[in-house]
Specification:
The protein contains twelve helices and 13 strands. Helix 2 packs parallel to helix 7. It is of the alpha+beta class. It has a single domain, classed as Beta-lactamase (3-Layer(aba) Sandwich). Helices cover 35% and strands 16% of the residues. The chain is globular, with a radius of gyration of 19 Å. The strands form four sheets. Strands 2-1-13-12-11-10 form a six-stranded antiparallel beta sheet, with helices on both faces. Strands 5-9-6 form a three-stranded antiparallel beta sheet. It has a two-stranded antiparallel sheet with strand order 3-4.
Length: 352
């Protein structure tokens, strides 16, 4: 799929959408954007338009934990009973969780036996009072208001935003700093030149960054729903498609971790049921016969990396219901590039 064909596929989605390509396998980064970031303002969407990445943040949160492990600040296999606040340990125990058997690694793998506070009922409550400022403790109290374990720790995969809320707290306590500050320092946002990346509420937008794109759930504009609904490690980062693609390439190409073994650890499957499909903060699947790692964000984001191509691809669509179509375009592009990389990677295309 050459850039012209990719552009046509993006236009066919009929929703504001941006894609960016980066990585050692591309001669230079390039991107495509279509539609308006803000209809009322007449502002065009570009690959530099920031947006809420939602669960794409989980890859970064897992990477922070691995960076702290590199520095000897966090044992990923220690019981969380000694890593969380006593009040939150008591809450988890009240809901039936064995905090002496759960580890940060299991939280990162979604294998800790936790279900999820961020279910459909939670989304309904968020939308019913979009200005409500949620706290980490409030989310955990909601989670622990009923018995929650879906199985023993380390037994099987079960996606859980709650696990990453806990991981965010563990990181803050281990590093002695806010999650936003630790992310900026440990993930190299400034060093790597990410000019449109920040942790919402906790830090200001970088100077010169454009306003966030408007984001929609069906016909509802959810741009101004309080960021606190998804702020504490499972989400929280605002990024552009360009920054998300660049950082994903940086992660896989040796510019985030101190040691190659750390990336290998991130990508290694665990021993639990379902481990092949999710590693430490990353989904894994095969596309066109090649292993590909990726994560998605609820509001309409995605980031992929294909080691065989040495290629990162990040996408954003303003409408949640268009995400499936955008993913199909992205995965088709990767599959085509695996068959014949030259037209896809070497055709000159400007960053929109």
């Amino acid at each position: 799929m050459n850039p012209d064909a990719l552009n046509a596929a993006i236009l066919a989605l009929d929703a504001p959408t941006a894609l960016c390509i980066a990585g050692a396998g591309a001669p230079r980064p390039w991107g495509i954007a279509a539609g308006l970031a803000d209809v009322a303002a007449g502002r065009a969407l570009t690959v530099d338009t920031p947006f809420r990445t939602a669960s794409n943040t989980k890859t970064m949160t897992a990477a922070i934990a691995l960076r702290l492990k590199e520095r000897g600040r966090l044992n990923l296999d220690a019981p969380i009973a000694g890593l969380l606040s006593p009040a939150h340990v008591d809450l988890l125990r009240s809901a039936g969780h064995a905090c002496d058997a759960i580890t940060p690694r299991q939280l990162m793998q979604h294998s800790a036996g936790l279900s999820d506070h961020a279910d459909d009922a939670y989304v309904r409550d968020v939308l019913a009072d979009p200005a409500h400022a949620w706290t980490r403790g409030e989310q955990l109290r909601r989670y622990t208001s009923q018995p929650r374990p879906i199985g023993p720790p380390g037994a099987k995969f079960q996606y859980s935003d709650t696990g990453y809320v806990l991981l965010g707290e563990i990181i803050e306590r281990a590093a002695g700093d806010s999650l936003a500050a630790v992310a900026r320092r440990e993930l190299g946002f400034d060093r790597l030149g990410l000019a449109t990346t920040w942790w919402e509420i906790a830090e200001p937008a970088p100077a010169g960054a454009a306003p966030r794109a408007r984001q929609f759930l069906g016909k509802r504009d959810v741009t101004d729903v309080s960021a606190t609904m998804d702020l504490y490690g499972g989400g929280g980062l605002v990024m552009s498609a360009r920054d998300l693609a660049r950082w994903t390439a940086d992660l896989f190409e040796g510019r985030v971790y101190e040691r190659p073994a750390t990336l290998a650890e991130m990508l290694a499957p665990g021993a639990h049921e379902g481990a092949d499909g999710y590693r430490l903060g990353l989904f894994a699947k095969r596309i066109g016969g090649a292993e590909v790692y990726f994560h998605l964000g609820y509001w309409g984001t995605a980031a992929y990396y294909c080691p065989a191509l040495r290629l990162a691809m990040a996408g954003f669509t303003a409408r949640r219901e268009t995400r499936t179509g955008m993913l199909a375009v992205m995965e088709s592009a990767l599959e085509t590039a695996l068959l014949d990389p030259d037209p896809f990677l070497n055709t000159p295309a400007p960053l929109a």
